[in-house]
Amino acid sequence: xxxxxxxxxxxxxxxxxxxxxxxxxxxxxxxxxxxxxxxxxxxxxxxxxxxxxxxxxxxxxxxxxxxxxxxxxxxxxxxxxxxxxxxxxxxxxxxxxxxxxxxxxxxxxxxxxxxxxxxxxxxxxxxxxxxxxxxxxxxxxxxxxxxxxxxxxxxxxxxxxxxxxxxxxxxxxxxxxxxxxxxxxxxxxxxxxxxxxxxxxxxxxxxxxxx
Length: 211
Fold this sequence. Notes:
The chain is an alpha+beta fold. The chain has helices at 3-11, 26-34, 38-51, 56-68, 72-87; strands at residues 89-96, 108-109, 117-119, 132-138, 143-144, 149-156, 170-174, 179-189.
């Protein structure tokens, strides 16, 4: 499909009664599509998608439209939302350790590139600390500097590892053995299929230990 078809198809998945904080509705999207104002229509659809849960197809179509328009940041965000629907999402208040106290000296890219390890209280078979991998998206900021604080969104690689995590929990971010930052969980949404993994001594994939 071309950009117009993708955006029009995605718009049909938005309930007509849905509205943003600025009272933007899908009818506004249709007005912009009528004049081939694709980038504006895409932006409005992203806003509408942030306000109410919409199906995976919606975000897949927006991602494809953004790629055709060569809007890299928008495409990355739409693909990220697809990942959230598939694997779940954890919002947290993250504070990075300052450069003087941590190995990292450079800022973290905010658009979902980094997939750090997280100490969420799981243990390895030997009883030591184990970590779970989750991608990181920084809300409203292109970068997060060492020592800074921001609200972040995490997409877990293995959602079942996070079943015991709840709001208010403190979790540590690792890029190596040292703690790179500490986050307080604000919200957690896991897919219904995120069931606890059975322990097995044969054929299982262990949770990585911190090394």
